[in-house]
Every structure is written in C-alpha cells, then in structure tokens.
Design goal:
Layout lengths: L1 E2 L2 E2 L3 E6 L6 E6 L4 E5 L2 E6 L5 E3 L3 E3 L2 E3 L3 E2 L3 E2 L6 E3 L8 E11 L5 E6 L9 E7 L3 E6 L3 E3 L8 E11 L2 E10 L6 E9 L6 E6 L6 E10 L1
Length: about 220
C-alpha cells in the first residue's frame, strides 16, 4: 500500500480452504506473504525477499531436492565408518576425505548397499601415479590404492545412479603425507534394492583409521 509518500508494510495470508468458504485472506503488519492450503503454509515470502518452501518443490512432475551434507566423522579410530539412512530419492553421493590415513598399508575401500553393505558384484579399476604408475581391479568394492601407513588422502569419490539400482563411481585423491601423488578409481555395481548406506573401510578389514575426517554429501 502507498499513501502520501509513506509505505505501509502489510502481511497477507492467502488460504485455499478445503471447506466451502473457499479463498480466505487475512493481513497483519509483519510484511510477510504466506500461501496456504487449508491453513497449512506451503510458501512464505519474507521481508528480505527470501522464499521459503515448506515441502518439496515440484517442477513439471519432477522433485527438486536439496544438496544435503551428512554428519562429518573423525577417521581417527575403528576399521570402518558408516553413513546410513540415506534417503530413497538420492541420485548422487559424494564421499569426501580430508587427511584420511590408516595404521597399515591395506587398500582403502568404499562400499554401498541396500539394507546391508554389498560386498560383491563390483566392477572396479583403480590405480596410482606416485613415484611410479600402477593399476589393479576389484570385485568387492570401490577401491583406492594405499602405499604406506604414512599416507593421508584428501579428495572425493562421486557415486551416481545411472538407472534402477545401478551405480557408477569415479574418484581422485591426492596424498598429503608420505609419498606425494594421485590415486584414482572408477567402477560400477548393481544393488539388490534402493541404496541407503555407504561404508568406508579397507581391503583387509583390520587396518584402523588414525587421522583425518570423512563426510558425505548427497542430492
């Protein structure tokens, strides 16, 4: 509202009522606009111009989902680190390492699963470029070479759903301790159901983490 050069900040709630009353509008002096369905607010336009949507935004029949950060975990003990309860709508997961090392030389491994961790059926090739170059393959996880216990890895692995329960991964990690170099990996696996977990561990399952931080982001 504009009157004699003064601006009056008004709020308006527009409620599409399910009852026979139809559209209901109400106003106050907060300067906030709300769109409601039967009294439940779905969209809020704040005084700063920010738009808040209470639930999923549906665009042409597709759900627009947020980029979600998991809970960061210190990789300073234990032989495996799990991230569980990943939502069913997730199509891409990024596993992030910052200065991650173990007390041994076993190959580091990332596995995914549906209900439980999948330990077979992977098609993975991985390699390194440090003082030399080498490569290997794995059928039991998405693997990352480990040269020595002194090596600490920083980088990320991206795991993407291509269709159904088929997931593909690619990764690049740099060593930030020990011998300088790069480790890389690529592969695919078909799960028995909808992905809901990620595990970070090692090939022998007994080397323990002793430094660094691990987290995931998903969308």
């Amino acid at each position: 509202m504009v009157q004699s050069g003064w601006y009056y900040n008004m709020a308006c709630s527009i409620n599409a009522s399910i009852a026979s009353t139809g559209i209901i509008t109400s106003a106050d002096a907060t300067g906030i606009l709300q769109l409601q369905t039967d009294g439940t607010t779905g969209l809020t336009l704040g005084t700063s111009g920010d738009i808040t949507i209470a639930n999923n935004l549906v665009v042409s029949g597709s759900n627009v989902r947020p980029l979600v950060s998991g809970t960061s975990q210190a990789s300073t003990s234990g032989t495996s680190i799990d991230f569980t309860s990943i939502p069913t709508w997730v199509k891409r997961i990024t596993v992030i390492f910052s200065g991650v090392s173990t007390n041994g030389t076993s190959t580091r491994r990332i596995q995914i699963g549906a209900g439980s961790v999948t330990t077979s059926g992977y098609t993975c090739a991985f390699g390194y470029a440090t003082t030399g170059v080498g490569s290997s393959t794995s059928t039991t996880g998405f693997d990352i070479t480990n040269g020595s216990a002194a090596e600490a890895l920083s980088g990320h692995m991206t795991i993407t759903n291509i269709s159904g329960n088929i997931w593909v991964e690619s990764a690049v990690f740099a060593t930030t301790g020990g011998t300088a170099g790069l480790y890389y990996s690529g592969g695919t696996v078909t799960l028995s159901g909808t992905l809901d977990r990620v595990r970070v561990t090692t090939l022998n399952g007994t080397d323990a983490f002793d430094a660094g931080t691990i987290n995931i982001m998903y969308e």
